[in-house]
Structures are given as C-alpha cells and as structure tokens.
Amino acid sequence: MKLRRKILLAIILLVFIPVILMGSISYYSFSHAMEKKSSNFYWVSLLETDRKLRFALSELTTISNSAITQPAIQKTLKQPDFAITYEQKQDINNLINHPMVTSFGLYSKNKLLYQYNEAMSFGELSTQSWFEAMRQAEGRPIWVGPGENGSAAAGNPVLIQARIIKDYYSLEDIGAVVIYVKPDLLDQVFWDAATLKQGDILLVNKQGKIVFDKSGSHIGEATEFPFLADGYDNERGYYVDNYLGEKSLITYLPSYNKDWYLAAITPSRMIASESVSIRNIAVILVLVSLISAFLFDRFFVRRLVGSIISAVNGMKRVQQGIFVPITTSVKADDERDLLIDGFNRMSKQIVELIEQVQKEQNRKKEVELQALVAQINPHFIYNSLESINSMAVLEGNRNISKMVVSLGKLLRISISENQEMIPLAMEMEHVRHYMDIQKFRFEDKFSYQIEVPEELKFYKTQKLIVQPIVENALYHAIEPMEGNGIISITAGESGDDIVIDVRDNGPGFDQSTLLSLWSKDWSTLKKYRENGVGLKNVHERLHLQFGGYYGIMICSSPGFGSIIRIRIPKMVP
C-alpha cells in the first residue's frame, strides 16, 4: 500500500474513530450526568422525607417516653394481679393520646393487662417476628411498618410502635406497650416527597420487605436490593438495575431508623429520553469528520509524503555508511523542515559517536594491558617473601621467619583473583596473621583474642571485611593508649545472620566525632587507614554485596572503648 494511502487511512482512523468515541462518550457522559442529577434530586428528596419521618415518629416516641414513666402505668404494671379501675384506665388513655393512635395494648410479663380499642393478646404478641427485637431494644422503641407486621396483607394496615417498659427506679423489665398508629402518618410524610414522572419512593427494611411506598401498591412485597446485602457500601449511593421488570435508576439512603432504608425508583427510559439530541449530534460529527479527512489528504498529505520520501532515501544512504546531509529546494517552514534538520543532525552525531567509540576501544585495550602488568608486582613480592623466609630459617631467626610467613599469607588472600567470597575461618585466619605481624611492631602494647564457633567457620563471607575494622581499632584506639590494649574479635549467630563484634578498650569517641569522620571525602585523605576510611569502605562493600540491611554498626562512648558489629547473612558454601 502506498504511503499516501496509509496516511489517508490513518487520518480516517485518527479522526473518524475519535469522533465516534467522542460522540459515544458524550452520550454516555450526558446519560450518566442525568443519572447523577436525578440521583441528587432524589437524594435531597429522600433526605427531606427521612427528616419528616423522623419528626413524625419522634412525636409519638416523645408521648410514649413520657407515658411509660408515669405512676399510672408504672403502678399498673407493678401490680398485675390487681384489677384496673376506671380512673386508672382514663389516666392511661390520657397519657397515650394522639390523633394518629388508633389503639394500644399494655402488657405485663405474661399477659395483656389493658387495651384501648383492640390489641393482640400476649400469646399473639410473643409469636410476632419483631417480639425478640423489642426485648433486645432494652426499652428503646422499635417501629414495625404495615409491610412488616402483616397488617397490609390483612387489609387493615397499621404502623406499630413497641417497647419494653422498665421500672422507674430499679430499671427492671416490668412489661411492654404496643401502640397502633394510623398509616395516614406515613401517607402524610411520603405524599410531600418530590419524585420525577412515573417515579416512586419506597421504605424497605433490611430483610428486603417494602414497609411502605408512596404509590401504596407494593406494601409488603419482597425485594432484593443489593445495598441490603452485608458488606455493601450502603451509606448513600445509586445504581441502575431492573425493578419490576424494568431497567431503573435506584437511589438509596439509610433512614434514621437503623432497620429501614429509603429507596427512590426512576425508569431509565425517562432519563435516556433527554440524551437523544446528543446522539444525533454525534452522527453528524462523524459525517463531517469523514469529509474533512479527504480534504486534508488533498491539501496536506501529498506534500508531506514528498518530505518523508526524501528522509527515507537519506536513511538508505546511512545503511550503506554514507552520511550525506539531505538538501531541500523549497522551505516549508513547518515540521517537514524539522524532520530534515533532525536527520542531518542525527547523521552528524552518528559520525561523532563512531569516532568516540573507536577512541574508547583503544583506551580500553591500554587499561587492560596495564592491569596485566600490575598483576606481576604482587606475585613478585610474594615470591620474594618466600626467599626471605628461607634465608631467615637458614640463619636461625625464627621471629623474622614467622613475620614473613604471616605477611606472605596475607598477600595470598589479597592477590587471589575471582574469589570475592571466602570461608569465615579463612577470613579470621587472615586477621590472625595481621595481628601477629602487628605484635612484632607493638611488642607487648596489646593482646588479642579471636573466638569463632566451629559451626560458623564454613559459612561464606566477603573477604577483607574484618581486617580493616581491626586495623582501625589498632591505630585509633590501642596506639594512643598509655597502658596495654585488648582487642577481641567474636563471631556469633543472630537468626539467619552472622554478627562479628570487634571490641577494644581504647578511649572511645562521641557521636559528633564519628559523623565528622564518616562524612569526609576519601579522595582528600593521604592514607587509607586515616580518619576511619576502613569503616566506611567495609560498610559500603557489604551494602553493595548483600543489601541495605547488612553492614556495620558502631557503638562507642568516650572513656569506655568501642564495639564495631559486622552483620552478614549466612551463606552456605
């Protein structure tokens, strides 16, 4: 396929498809915005409905709160075997008096003591599904709607408030009261609730039963709203789902009564009707974008292809190793000129990089040759020490022989190639030889001891990590002392790690001294052992080799010596 046709096809895809996506996204975004707007509208309506419901129910709760603490009811329940006089009945009726109350029943622990109009017997009360909830409420009122108590199905819907009555002084349960309220109370609350056209507002309980609804046609029916399930985010929200066989927007809100939820239902077709105009605009935009793509090809793509072909021909010359700049006869003053200029700069940079690589290769060969020559020196020194040892033995000077042997073994580990990890026993042996050599220099100035458990000797460790620590202790702690110094090297286990403690009885140092030494630049130091470089070197080597968890820890205090702890992982050979 020709390049021009490919670009035309790409333009169609890059314009045509985005416009389709834009139209689709706009359509769905608008639909979602309408859903959200409807949800917010309903949320405000549900919030206002719940506020009115709370006010209406609280009014009755206030009456019952006052009534159950009055002597007329308290005395009647404390003396269930006495007959209730006419005056007591009048007093009780006056206490529970409200236009919405149709009847009520006053119960002792095992029987119905008094009823106004009509109330269920104690036997019927104890079989109600909400009886146990009333007992567990510990005197707080519970509300049972028409769809929960079965009164709606029986054709005589009522709203029930039930609560345990406690003794005013001892707070012991002495009875219960069940108040029957006209459903008109809920009608008044829900009638003023704002709804969209063909919408409805439901009051449902946690078991999915419709306690009450604005339309009044679904009271007592069972539903399966997802927000009623355990673990669902049921604070406030909305979603789209089928309700009564129709796709609907469902907005829900927990009621002030913890056992109820308010849910608003709006058919989705009512919301989608507002988005038809957006869909039509999207179709028109798709047609316009297709025409624009063909016009763009005619007036721009054909010229752009010429510049790209020039760049392609230049690339072919580069493949052959010919770095010739591309020249153009006509300036376009746009990205086509940037393309040609970029290619020319690239060709120039490639030539420079090739020259730089050649120079680096030559330098690398020189460094490798120097490294090979440098390896000769340690081997020559080691062989020379062997000769000196033989001469010392022949002369009978055992001290010189012992010192030369120790120095030779130190050099053997130092010049070992491709052996970064060595057994812990070999590392400690290296330290022992170093200390023996230093004993010749310091004579009886210090003593040392090395303790390594037998089971740890064969674990692998990075070489030359203990000797720099010991050297640091020797020069910075033992040498300045007037008396005899002691250096102790001890290895032990710590879980899956090995810890090596290097202790000395030197003068110690404070934190500021350590921080000043640690922050110094290595390149400015005259000697390797100067100013604690050995500590920092070992710490960073262990960091690089084993990770940030491993390294050294320094504990010191002026006048109490120092402890340097090395932590390494257990590595099986």
User: Biggest sheet, strands in spatial order?
Assistant: 2-1-5-4-3
| Largest sheet geometry | 5 strands, antiparallel
Summing up helix and strand content along with how strands pair, one would put the structural category as alpha+beta
What is the approximate shape?
A: flat
The rounded distance between the terminal residues' Cα atoms is: 63 Å
| CATH-defined superfamily of the largest domain | PAS domain
CATH architecture of the largest domain: 2-Layer Sandwich
Mean pLDDT across the residues is 81
Unreliable segments of 5+ consecutive residues? 371-377, 522-531
**CA gyration radius, whole angstroms:** 47 Å
CATH topology of the largest domain: Beta-Lactamase
What is the β-strand count?
17
Number of domains: 3
Helix content: 40-55%
The number of helical runs is 16
The CATH top-level class label of the largest domain: Alpha Beta
In terms of DSSP E residues, the strand content is: 15-25%
Please write out the topology.
Elements lengths: L2 H65 L3 H8 L7 H10 L5 E7 L4 E5 L5 H5 L4 H6 L5 E3 L1 H4 L9 E8 L6 E9 L2 H8 L8 E6 L4 E4 L23 E7 L2 E9 L5 E8 H5 L3 H44 L15 H40 L1 H20 L2 H17 L6 E3 H19 L3 E6 L8 E3 L4 H12 L6 E10 L2 E8 L6 H8 L14 H14 L4 E6 L5 E8 L4
